[in-house]
Specification:
The N and C termini lie far apart (about 50 Å). The longest helix is centred in the middle third of the chain and has 23 residues. The protein is globular, with a radius of gyration of 20 Å. It has about 425 residues and is an alpha/beta fold. A six-stranded parallel beta sheet has the order 1-8-5-4-2-3, sandwiched between helices. Strands 6-7 form a two-stranded antiparallel ribbon. It folds into two domains: about 160 residues, Rossmann fold (3-Layer(aba) Sandwich), CATH 3.40.50; about 230 residues, Dehydroquinate synthase-like, alpha domain (Up-down Bundle), CATH 1.20.1090.10. It is about 45% helix and about 10% strand.
């Protein structure tokens, strides 16, 4: 009798250049792509480091026109992306380069999509929030240069947007959004403030941990049409390897990178961890901490994050980590061995089934306390009366919910949120 479960997993990642000095070769890469013009997409803070203009100079030296757009918003919104798209549409570009964190890379993905296709953001946003239309035309080459060890967006098919009118975040996911090349130069992360290093590092951790504990690819229903396999296929043997390596590196190096930003070895190892985790979660998928992060960030009112621009926002790494201890205590029964193994990789300690669901939650709380990242929803200004709104936002994140290792109900989410105060 033919199985109705999936028996195939997919795995993909862009070509990678990694190492101190990798940034110096960007001009050669653009020239090799045959481009005659290139729009560099970044934010004002990253531009102040001089990196985007240095990249532009290297591209210009190859006889290629390069221009810098620095209007990316930290935690990009539908409005900020519309502004970036309007700027890019003023002329034709042969390629795009994203320089910065996930905000810049995700904005560049959206600009690439909306300058090569008719339509609006909501046409492409994942249902039930948007229409989920798949791109049908070729996109331009996109080179991603991350300057934070965190988002992994340089490896993924995913673009996340804060939909201001809906007060939640939503995503676009399609293989054509994946950058054609990732250039990871750990030296670009040295200037990050401790708070940004901490939040970015917790995003790396969450990517690896969620992918590692996601439902196994062969425990999911087989798709009716193989051409429509979801981008998140679930835990699989290849992603598992990268996730385990990432967890070990984060456990050994995140505290050091936060405490001393000029610890070049810690920066190098965290950049590696981010690359490993991005490679893992870009295929296996993230689940509940990310599903919770989108409404947490989208519904915030007055919270000002230290180390970030003066504006109401919850940085993504803080949003994914605040419910993580409660989430992984709740998902523990879905695969106890994996949860215990993850706790061991992060801490270097040994745990048994006697430690149970508390092991991983305790390791996460220890790490969060050591790096000084917010650990309660009340830190962001939320109160118990907001729980229903947050639950409703999480329940709309179908891409993440599809790989949670336990059936998700509003009641379970409400318990997780209340426990995260």
């Amino acid at each position: 009798m033919q199985s109705t479960n999936e028996s195939v997993f997919t795995w993909a990642a862009p070509p990678l250049k990694f190492g101190n000095g990798a940034l110096d070769e960007v001009g050669h890469e653009v020239a090799a792509a045959g481009a005659r013009s290139c729009l560099i997409i970044t934010d004002a803070g990253v531009r102040e480091t001089g990196i985007p203009d240095e990249v532009a100079d290297r591209i210009n030296s190859e006889g290629i026109k390069a221009e810098v757009f620095d209007g990316v918003a930290i935690e990009p919104t539908d409005e900020s992306i519309d502004a970036a798209v309007s700027y890019a549409r003023q002329q034709e570009w042969d390629c795009y380069i994203a320089i910065g964190g996930g905000s810049a890379i995700d904005t560049a993905k959206a600009v690439n999509l909306l300058t090569t296709h008719p339509g609006e953001l909501l046409d492409f946003i994942t249902p039930p929030i948007g229409q989920g239309t798949a791109p049908w035309l070729p996109l331009k080459p996109l080179i991603a240069i991350p300057t934070t060890a965190g988002t992994g967006s340089e490896s993924t098919t995913i673009c996340v947007v804060d939909m201001l009118s809906l007060h939640l975040k939503a995503g676009i996911s399609h293989p054509s959004l994946r950058p054609v090349l990732a250039i990871v130069d750990p030296a670009t992360t040295v200037s990050l403030p401790p708070e940004v290093t901490a939040a970015s590092g917790m995003d790396v951790l969450s990517h690896a941990l969620e992918s590692y504990t996601s439902v196994a690819y062969d425990a999911k229903p087989a798709p009716a049409d193989p051409r429509k396999r979801p981008a998140f296929c679930g835990a699989n043997p290849i992603s598992d390897v990268w996730c385990e390596m990432a967890l070990k590196l984060v456990g050994a190096n995140l505290r050091r990178a936060v405490m001393n930003g000029r610890d070049l070895n810690a920066r190098h190892q965290m950049a590696l961890a981010s690359t490993y985790a991005g490679t893992g979660f870009g295929n296996a998928g993230t689940h509940l901490p990310h599903a919770n992060a989108y409404p947490i960030a989208g519904a915030v009112k007055d919270y000002q994050a230290k180390g970030y621009p003066d504006m109401p926002m919850v940085p993504h790494g803080q949003a994914v980590s605040v419910t993580a201890p409660q989430v992984f205590a709740w998902t523990y029964p879905g695969d106890p061995d994996r949860h215990l193994r993850a706790a061991e990789l992060l801490s270097g300690r040994t745990f048994t089934h006697t430690d149970g669901a508390d092991a991983l939650a305790h390791v996460l709380k220890e790490l969060m306390a050591d790096i000084g990242i917010p650990s309660s929803l009340s830190d962001f200004g939320y109160v118990d009366a907001d729980v229903d709104t947050l639950v409703a936002g999480s329940m709309k994140q179908t891409r993440q919910l599809s790989v949670v290792p336990r059936p998700v109900t509003p009641e379970a989410l409400a318990s997780i949120y209340r426990g995260s105060f």
